[in-house]
Every structure is written in structure tokens, then in C-alpha cells.
Amino acid sequence: MEHRRADFAAFYENARDDCLRAVTASLGNRQAAEEAVAEAFARAWARWPRIADHPSPRAWIVRTALNMHVSRWRRWRREVPTPDRYDQPTLDDTDTTMPDPRMMAALQSLPLRQRQVVALRIFLDLDSKTTARTLGIAAGTVTAHLHRATRTLRAHLTSATEER
């Protein structure tokens, strides 16, 4: 049990910031990301022997957090028929663990699937095959989404820089 606890603690320390960055980039809302990532880590602890053997435990955390956010959003939408409180990004310019605010704004211009691919491929540095498996899509689809996303991000960030 003590070995299990130490393994999980080391994983948590090494993965927490990367997972939070990836989920925040995907959701565009730091508070929602923190809630989802915390719950995902709690679920990982409960299943740690199995998650420790997963090909990419970080990807499992991110995917679980994203799934929980979607479930929470759907439940909330059924209960309160008003605009989603998570639609607008909440950015903190002083937080150095998060991506640059201009990057976050550019990420929000992407469709959700492209944001998820960027979060996994760029922020977690997963390969296309692992990203595809995590999102339940083909590796070629990951490549296509990443290509479109980087083209859009480049255009968005270049125009933002030129406006300064």
C-alpha cells in the first residue's frame, strides 16, 4: 500500500501541471479545468493499479477530466436552461503554469476537437497514435485536426501580433 501511495504521489506531482494546462487549453476555463482535473486524479487514485499500467496515464487523466466536464455540462444544461457558464474563457495573466493569454484566446477560436488534439499533442506531447486512442478517433484524423489547428493558430497569433 505504501509503495502504491508513493507511486501515485510521484505521478501526481509530475503530471498535475501538464494535465491542468491541457484541460484548461481545451476548455478555456481555469476553474472548470481545476475541478475536472482534481476529480480525474481522485478517480485515478481509486483505480491506481490499473491506471499505472495504462499506456499513457496523463492522457487518461486528461480524457477523464474532459469527459467529466461534458457530463457535468449536460447535467447542468438539463437543470438550468440558460447560457453555459463555462462558455467564456477565464484567463489569469499572472499564472505562469498556464499558456499565454493570447494563445488561450487563439485556442478558443478552434473547434472543440481541434482544441483537444492540440492539448494532447502539444501540451502533453503525446504521439498521434496515443492521442487518437485517447479521443477515440483515427490517427489520420488527429494529424488532420492538428494541421488545421496549427494553421488557424498561426494566422490568429500572427494577426494579433501585427495589431500591436
Description of the structure:
Residues 103-152 form the RNA polymerase sigma factor 70 region 4 type domain. InterPro entries: RNA_pol_sigma-70-like, RNA_pol_sigma-70_dom, RNA_pol_sigma70_r2, RNA_pol_sigma70_r4_t2, RNA_pol_sigma_r2, RNA_pol_sigma_r3/r4-like, WH-like_DNA-bd_sf. One of its GO terms (cellular component) is DNA-directed RNA polymerase complex. Keywords: DNA-binding, DNA-directed RNA polymerase, Sigma factor, Transcription, Transcription regulation. The structure is a single chain. This protein is globular. 76% of the residues lie in helices and 0% in strands. The protein has a single domain (2-163), classed as Butyryl-CoA Dehydrogenase, subunit A, domain 3, CATH 1.20.140. By secondary structure, the chain is mainly alpha-helical. The longest helix has 26 residues, at 2-27. α1 (2-27) crosses α4, α2 packs across α4 and α5 packs across α8 (139-163).
The third-level CATH topology is: Butyryl-CoA Dehydrogenase, subunit A, domain 3
**Broad CATH class:** Mainly Alpha
By helix and strand content, what is the structural category?
mainly alpha
Question: What amount of the residues lies in strands?
Answer: under 5%
Q: In the CATH classification, which architecture applies?
A: Up-down Bundle
Biggest sheet overview: none
What is the percent of helical residues?
A: over 70%
Question: Could you state the order of secondary-structure elements as H and E?
Answer: HHHHHHHH
Radius of gyration: 16 Å
General shape: globular
Average of per-residue pLDDT values: 83
Number of domains: 1
Number of strands: 0
What is the end-to-end distance? 55 Å
Low-confidence stretches: 82-91
Number of helices: 8
Pfam family, one: Sigma70_r4_2
Organism: Actinoplanes lobatus
Domain RNA polymerase sigma factor 70 region 4 type: 103-152
Domain RNA polymerase sigma-70 region: 16-78
